Amino acid sequence: MKNRLLLTLALLCAVTLTRAQDFPALDASPLDVAYFPDGLPLFELRKKPAAEPKIKLYYSRPQLKGRKMIGDKAAPFGKVWRLGANEAAEITFYEEVTFGSERIQPGTYALFAIPGEKSWTFILSNKTDTWGNYTTDENAFIARATTDKVSKPAEPIEALSIMFKGADNDAVMVVGWENTVVELPIKF
Questions:
Q1: Which of 89, 91, 106, 136 has the fewest CB atoms within 10 Å of its CB?
Q2: Cβ distance 41 to 35 under 8 Å?
Q3: Summary count for the chain: helices (H), strands (E)
Q4: Helical H runs in the chain?
Q5: CA nearest 109: which of 119, 122, 76?
């Protein structure tokens, strides 16, 4: 009887201690990654090591959920925006690139944007690991690139989406969200 009681207590303790952890809920703006050349997920890189990325971009994907975002509080016209949600987007260049008119060395940079109705400016900062743009240090901005390639999609885009298109040494970063699509050339 005493052994059964001890065994029952031991099992109860084991079950209590090994129960599932209380993980946080799924983030409302999940993290995503885009590569250039486009379509190079990690499993592809492992299968074809010669197909190494030239650019990798991490960003969070906020959802519209019936809200107005571009030109409003989330991404106001004429103001620096973190280009997504949560932490500022981070872009890694694996080769030297021309961003706007600046030659940029390989490395990882925070990526911000200044949305506009007819043009957008993208900004590289050497201050990474920042939450949003609340601690943005303009002294850390190293390059700006402005594009007037702003258009409207056929249908609204619910989640902020970023991808790359192009080939060889001509990459185009494409940002789409709500009623806006923006294209920014990046040269190698």
A1: 106
A2: yes
A3: 2, 12
A4: 2-17, 42-47
A5: 122
- The owner of tokens 């890189």 is 45
Whether 69 contacts 76, CB under 8 Å: no
Q: Is 75 helix (H, G, I), strand (E, B) or coil?
A: strand
At 133-180, the pLDDT tens digits run: 666 778 889 999 999 999 999 999 999 999 999 988 899 999 999 999
In Å, what is the CA distance from 66 to each residue of 30, 44, 80, 109? 18, 36, 23, 32
Encoding tokens for residue 114?
């200044």
Written as one string, the DSSP assignment of 19-42 is: SPP-PPPPPSS-EEEEEESSS--H
pLDDT value of position 42: 52
Give the pLDDT band (50/70/90) at residue 78: very high
- Locate 105 and state its tokens: 């060395």
